[in-house]
Amino acid sequence: MKLAAIDIGSNAIRLQVTATIRTKGELNFKKIEYVRFPLRLGQDVFNTGSISKQKKIKFKKLMRAFKILIDLYEVDDYMACATSAMREAKNGAEIIKEVEEDIKLKIKIIDGANEALLINNAINSFLDNKSTYLHIDVGGGSTELTLIKGAEKLISKSFKIGSVRRLERHDSPIIWGKMKKWIIDHCSKYGGKITAVGTGGNINKLFELGEKQKGEKMTITQLKEVQDFVRKMSIEDRINELQLNPDRADVIIPASEIYIAVMEWSKTRNIIVPEVGLKDGIMQHLYLRNTQKEKVKFS
Fold first, then answer.
1. 182 by DSSP, 3-state: which?
2. Could you tell me which of 42, 131, 260, 293 has the fewest CB atoms within 10 Å of its CB?
3. Is residue 82 within 8 Å of 6, Cβ to Cβ?
4. Is the model's pTM score more than 0.85?
5. Do 37 and 153 belong to one domain?
6. Cα gap 100→107, rounded to integer Å
7. Per-residue pLDDT, 151
8. Per the domain annotation, does 179 fall within a domain?
């Protein structure tokens, strides 16, 4: 079975096409195509409240290209999910409707709760059944936090704090205060015995720059050291020397500030980085939708 996931974020838009392969009773998702395009919808939305005409034209061209790839790969099922920027844009629903009518591609605008649910499903296999975790997913426009104990979700909350929103100086001190209070209220009872789980392109890159291997933990001290190393570099040096994409080079520090603040407030000393995200959660949802429909909980 071939599945496709489209993640329409605030900083970039991604398409992944995956083949499901079962060998010796074990299910594997094999990536056969991946495209990431740096269309920063959040820059428009967080500054003006709407997606500009120029970005709308690019967005529709990109969706047409993705639809062609989905058709060429003869995908069995797909899901396109739009997050913070599109759900806050005054013209978001209108653009989604145009894409469906003109390109025949259906896009679902999901709220923070469903975004967290999908991503949490993708990280479950990396967690043990005894420990307590705080899942931190930092996107361009929002941060989703989920407290997990014994592989079971206890509570989650979405906050309008993200890397692009912070870069554009639209992160409200009031929201920061609410996030801090939520973290302290729900994490203090665990006395610092919480491990952070980080998802998002920026934490993946910070983890890589820290020369960590998949499965290793990164301490908050090591994360701060990487942050300090990158912060001292100009945007040009980040692009040329660290080989960061331009749309990663300017948001990586704002994103790191969010991860570190959450870790400090929750008193977590270590973070694991599974290198999965919304697209991986969408893939799992699509697989269940096509094989075990009665078990699908996502609405």
1. helix
2. 293
3. no
4. yes
5. no
6. 7
7. 77
8. yes
